[in-house]
Amino acid sequence: MRILGIDPGIAQTGWGVVDSNGQQSRPVSFGVIRTATSLSEEERIHRIAEMVGQLATEYKVAICGMEDIFFTKNISSAIPVAKVIGACIHQLAILDIEVRLFSPVTIKTAVTGYGAAQKKQVQEMVRLILGFEQIPKPDHAADALSAAICLAVHDSTQTRIRGL
Fold it and tell me: What does the radius of gyration of the chain's CA atoms come to, in whole angstroms?
């Protein structure tokens, strides 16, 4: 199964594509969608969603795992990210691609086995799981790959549970 992982953000949205057979995941590609601060918020959100749709089409992904918004004390920074999430979900729905949202704790648990893992620990596990020599850069791309791995782990676990 080909999975698109997304780490949403208004300035930088990380993305990563992995292939998973339920037992192993292997990297296909990854990167970051950057938007210029000179653009309006609406233009930035539109461009991010448009690029996510292009990536999904280009890599022929079957499903998408995305990091969900988490509670923050600074609501003004959370709102644009929530808008990016909604726009990406809409764009992928047009392409008939299911999106599953995962909390940061769920992603950390799936990738490291520990929900309070530090960012560097998650990135190191992404490196090991996907067989990279170095931690994928930039950080948002590594975070997106962790969302894709989380979806693969979640699906594999659900398949095993149904088989019992």
Answer: 15
